[in-house]
Task: structure prediction
Amino acid sequence: MGSYKGKLMSVLSGLLAGFTNFLLYFSLSIAFVLAFKFIYVRLTPYDEWKLIKEHSNTAAAIALSGAFLGYCIAISGAAKNAISLVDFAVWGVVAMCAQVIAFAIVRFVLVPRITERIERDEIPAGIISATVSISVGVLNAACMSY
Result:
């Protein structure tokens, strides 16, 4: 009977440690997503939230959704491969920078008038922006390994 109690306590202890790590990483992930939203929408020349809420701008909704998905994919890779919470935080910042740089490349190099096109609710522009963001997120996640 004592052996059973010892095994049960060992399992419960492991679950508690795992749950604590989950809470830490998940909480930091949510904080990163909120920070990304705050930073990203200030770096774009238009107000995505206003375009979406007040004007039902589908292109802006697609572009912003892609940016969020791309960033979440990247930080999920960071969480999976991080060796510590500090390591995860560093990679979270790297992922954020990569997403912002990707937007700048699309805006200034690939599709120079993409911001105006998104403001005019041209859906293909929103799709291109979202696709680049998601693609960069996937590449980020794949590259964040040891």
